[in-house]
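Entry 12.
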Amino acid sequence: MENSNQCVELWKTYTSLCEEMPVCDRPRKPLVGVIDDGTKTVRFVVYEAECSEELASHELDKSISQPKEGWYEQDAHDIVDKIRTCAEVVVEKLTELGYTKDDIVALGITNQRETTVAWDKYTGKQLHNAIIWNDIRTDSTVDATIAKVPDQNKNYLKHICGLPISPYFSALKMRWMKDNVKSVRRASRDKRLLFGTIDAWILWNLTGGPVGGVHKTDVTNASRTMLMNLETVNWDPMLCRLFGIHRDTLPQIKSSSEYFGTVRDGSILDGIKITGILGNQQAALLGQSCMRAGQAKNTYRSGCFLLYNTGARRVLSSHGLLTTVAYRLGPNAPVVYALEGSIAVAGGAIKFLRDNLKLCEEGEEEIGAARVSSTGDVYFVPALNGLYAPYWRKDARGIICGLTSFTTKNHIIRAALEAVCFQTRDILEAMDKDCGMPLSNLHVDGRMISNRLLMQLQADLIGMPVLIARSWDMSALGAAVAAGAAVGAWDLEQWAARAADADPLLPTTTVDDRNARYTKWKMAVQRSLGWATTKKSLAMTGQKRHSLSHSDVSPPDSRQHSIDDATIDRMTDVKLTDAKVTDDVFIEELMQYSARKFSIFVPLKSPKDEHTILDDADYYMSKKECDYGVCQCCEKRKKLHTDWQTIEDIIENDPEIIFDEEDHPIVLEKSIVPTGPVVGIGVSLKKRFPLHRLPSIFRSITNKITHNLK
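Predicted 3D structure (tokens):
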């Protein structure tokens, strides 16, 4: 009896130990990890190779600061810290599932696009908070750029980079930081500056940062900067010069699926190879397996992004869409292009109704919208920061129209959901006109696909089936596909040929009904335009800037320039009655007289045009392929036999122009490295100081010192 009791106790001990041991009930496969940096969250996800279901994941929310209206920033260091924290949690979960960190054979990165960071390559510190993609602080920079292109055409550069001149893109954010942030100007002057989108910042930090960090990006993110040539798939010399962004500050462009570097930051991910990088929307296209020309997907997040695969054909849109790189799966693989329509506010419209207007609680928008059968003819245009594709109107502002005495908050909530669907139809209409190939269905993903009412409204208002992905985050899956393919863990051909893993929703409305509602939507959009009346920059308006500051001119003779009240009244009358007297002439003359009257002399400089980096734009805009010897029209014996590396050398040796605090241009030319001491870390004395700006006494002292040194 005693022996039997002992056997029972031993059996209980054995079974309890078995329950505590991690068990994997399926064949062990290689794992692929993905860093997914979105606008509001950071995630780390692990997939089994060739499996679309997440094995383990963890996410953290990010904080967004808004220093001014329309300005949105994030702490770039906080993003990297949260990535490491998420990775640690996920590795612990893998241990519970019977895996280890060593089972992760590749690491992919997918990121919010256009969000831009500037940092010091020697210290690794950000020089300014990351400027988020939907930030609109660069309005004046956009005005200055458009003012210098022929006919002030915002689409003038689309044949090169596929993008309109808009605050949306990274080149404008880079230019703004160089013009307005002293630390960025100083770093540019001292050759310490690095620019990049979030993927480049993450890669640089994970691979060592200041100690051997790799400064690279992929073609999808580079295509969103306005600095990459879509044909050469490299930084364009004219665009870099136009925006004043030096090639040395930009990352090297690679394909989306190849070896980028190995993690060397001492974190839990140390030693894992990074083999895939894509912008989040291109990654979602790949995750939805839309790898054939004519397929399209739409992602519903805070913004809404619809990509249409055009294959190897670059379609230059004439209806407000963007031409972008969809992906390039390997350094020797062909580039696949896409048309894209970007919607600034999708889920953000629901957040606005919830947080600002207090019309609903979180997660209750679908319930509230379902309580009414229609919007009651109410239309909500959520142009809270302007309208993106296909309108590209930064002067648009949000409106709610069609209100009656019977309107309730539920009608407005439903109108916000329909606004997302109407904006999607706007883009689909433009794609149909550009490509001439209407879609047969639309793949959808993103957090908002859990709202079944929204998805049904989308099918009804576009009149085609909507294929809902089984997982909301296709971006992370697409990055896993690219990273896994680079190490042979993911078969791309099988992935492209797989059946669509989606639930279809069919439209339930008539053609007449959806077209009538769409017509009223277009009427509402027209009423949203022109509300923002912010003052344009001087470069955009063509006005001249006059400086009222002290100079070396002697004060005028007191008797000659004295004036009495009667004279001032007479001048005022002339000004009001004689249209030939301009405001500037009248003000200058009156300022000189009134200065003497109040015993204060305010000398006037001669009118001076506002000088910007774009003043030499005409010269660079006139450059042709013939000038670089890469054209097909010249005779071979006359052509310069060069390659893109030579053109990159032209950029690197081209003098850089920066502006000081007083907007004076400073040319930084390549010169002989000085033999004297070096000032600071990595700071060489290559800058030519503008001696003509010094007072005469200091010029003479400087000349004497220079002569003695010789």
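Annotation: The two ends are 108 Å apart (CA to CA). The domain at 296-474+484-528 is CATH 3.30.420.40 (Nucleotidyltransferase; domain 5).
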